[in-house]
Amino acid sequence: MLRELVDLLTFRELESEEVDSLVASIEGAADDPEFGWMEDPEPDELRQTALVFKLMQHFAVGDKIDEVHELISEWFDEPLADFPENPGGPKLLVSEYFAWLDPLLAEREDNGGYEALVIDDRVSDNLNVIMVWRADTPRILELATQLALVVDRSHPYVLSRALGL
Q: What is the pTM (predicted TM-score) of this model?
């Protein structure tokens, strides 16, 4: 299951050996000195953190949603519209941003459109957003549930942790 999830989270663009290596490093995180700083983590917590850390190059990561937006926009040959501002009004909520972003990603017709997923790293206040093919989202969410991973479109827990709420 983890192998399929990693493959889907990386747009199925990696060679089989690369996927196998990533899966092995995620599954072997308990013995990896890179994760020695985690104090007696639960297996699910360690797997969650290792997934994010090992796939970090595929994420847009930031502690502010406008920073994450810029990183997402840079992934595309044709950038996304500018981050939506609310002149004179309250700042845009993260949930409002994702509601605004979703149709923009859906209309990118490469392989049926894109979708942004949020994956908690369990250790920081950063917002970790990964782009996936929209058609793969149901299977990604199913696999994440089976593996006890927190992966969602805009999971309230993930968003609240990322924003320090």
A: 0.88
